[in-house]
Amino acid sequence: MERDSANAQQATYWNEIGGPHWVEQQHQFDRMLAAFGARALEALQPTAGERVLDIGCGTGTSSLALAEAVGPTGEVLGCDIAPTMIAAARARCAAIDGLASSQLSFAVLDAQTDVLGPADSPFDAVFSRFGVMFFSDPAAAFTNVARHVRRGGRMAFACWQGEERNQWIAVPARVMRGFMPNPLSPQPNAPGPFAFGNPARVDEVLLAGGWTNVNIESFTASTELGAGLGLEAALRQTMGTRAAQDLRVQVDDATFQAATAAVRAALGEHLVDGAVVFDGNVWVVTAAVS
């Protein structure tokens, strides 16, 4: 599989660090992201018999929802750059009775560079729940994806608005960076969760990638950390984020523990009926191939 150096870095991170944390905390992340995935799925409107590509499928939650929508006559391919995530998705779905491999399959693929399917069997639709913000060259990635979609096919995805619009990460990250000798703030347009925070850039990238009829809708929903299981569960989820990884490699044990205590206190200010709750703000994006 051919990958440029930037996407290889993403693959390494998600396979070795981000992926294992996600697999361990699958229930927490699924609950946190449920409303956003549902809204993007509603925007896509998959129908029975369609062939759908799920980009950045992770542990398979969105792929399962798509497979249910397209039914036994449809086909869903979930792809992810990280073998760790794909292995977890396959194991999860293998345990589901009555789910045929012809209806739902998974592959380790880089949507920016890889062949995503046979030329004589293009996808009807493309979906992603927070999986399209990590490309080193997003215009090239969306160009490649468009090549694998039939004329008139469509796409819907959810992506985060800027970090400043998502206090579930901005609050703890601000605390953690206060303990770092060399704090690493998100760089505009750099691959990462908030790469598509600017809707004008999303529009530009999709048009450059050959997509048309781009529509970008703001959507807000409550975001529960730790699956609503209390402060310590929210803290465990938060201390597995990339900001926490940056903190861990920069400071000694005592400083890390002090930072963790400060993050706990900051999250505690957002307890609502025993759950740590913030508003999450995303863009729900739709587009088509002409």
Keywords:
single chain; 290 residues; alpha/beta; Rossmann fold; 8-stranded mixed β-sheet; 8 strands
Q: Which architecture name does CATH use?
A: 3-Layer(aba) Sandwich
Order of helical and strand elements = HHEHEHEEHEHHEHHHEE
CATH class: Alpha Beta
CATH superfamily: Vaccinia Virus protein VP39
Shape: globular
Q: Could you please say which CATH topology applies here?
A: Rossmann fold
> Portion of residues in helices?
40-55%
Looking at how many chains there are and whether they match, the oligomeric state comes to single chain
Portion of residues in beta strands equals 15-25%
Q: Give the number of domains.
A: 1
Structural class: alpha/beta
Mean pLDDT, to the nearest integer, reads 93
